């Protein structure tokens, strides 16, 4: 608090695209099921930002809590994995229905597993789907696909999932709405004098030690998992914002660009972190060969690589692999860039020198008009 006894606020990072993670503690009703009590305020926060031209993806817990209300006798603590997965399946429709009631635009259900995000080709498909949903004006609501997950429902899975989704869609900021005010220098439940930390410049071991264990009975995560998520987001150059989603005043301040909570800063800028990864990620054997016109567009105009400027492909790389881009002409060849190919080597050879609009007629499918999107490319 400041000298006047008011809670200190800090500025939010500038953002155009964000992920908002909402925990079960903000959605679970007393006695089971879902409640709109706190979800309404969060939905108004989202709606105001959408109206301002920003983009938001929600990562929402609450499916298991919703399922407990449908089949309360199956909800004993420590239920078998299959029972919890069944509850998640029963509750997921209720969860999406809760969010849809707050928005006039369509709400899209996106269920992911960690396997989807570890497999590079599935990762690219998930990113393409989310980006297309945002382009269509829909509101994606993401949850872990607990029903088919082979791992146990881990503590804080959706905190970490939210961080991965933030990196997946190149978000500017990760908002984590919880039922406490932010990160304290000690457990406020045990230490009444604990101080709220408005800003964290670096997630040191000392800062991580401030986090306690699991939070409320309705959720599966605690402050520790939120800091782990912030570390993941920070590695991608994304700031994390922790705030109390139960307090209307906090949400009003967020809309004014001020945070009463905790802002955890990323160690590097988002662009720097992504470019570093693109520059240093392992290369697959092979290359995409381009003509002088395509090379000039890449190096001089910051353009994406289109099939019309491609001469061919070397090697046997797959969609989603990191490959080099080589310019070849009468003067020889030179390496000009590296990037993530949207198409396999076989497909690149088939669409080389053709127009983007012809891709589907040639291949029978398409992953977009770019062989390598400019966001997935770094010049050498």
Automatic annotation (TrEMBL):
CDD domains, sorted: AAK_G5K_ProB (cd04242), PUA_G5K (cd21157)
Reactions catalysed, as given in the entry: L-glutamate + ATP = L-glutamyl 5-phosphate + ADP
Known EC number: 2.7.2.11
Matches recorded under PROSITE patterns: GLUTAMATE_5_KINASE (PS00902), PUA (PS50890)
Subcellular location: Cytoplasm
Major localization class: cytoplasm
Record's keyword terms, sorted: Amino-acid biosynthesis, ATP-binding, Cytoplasm, Kinase, Nucleotide-binding, Proline biosynthesis, Transferase
Binding positions for substrate per the UniProt entry: 61, 146, 158
Biological role: Catalyzes the transfer of a phosphate group to glutamate to form L-glutamate 5-phosphate.
Name of this protein: Glutamate 5-kinase
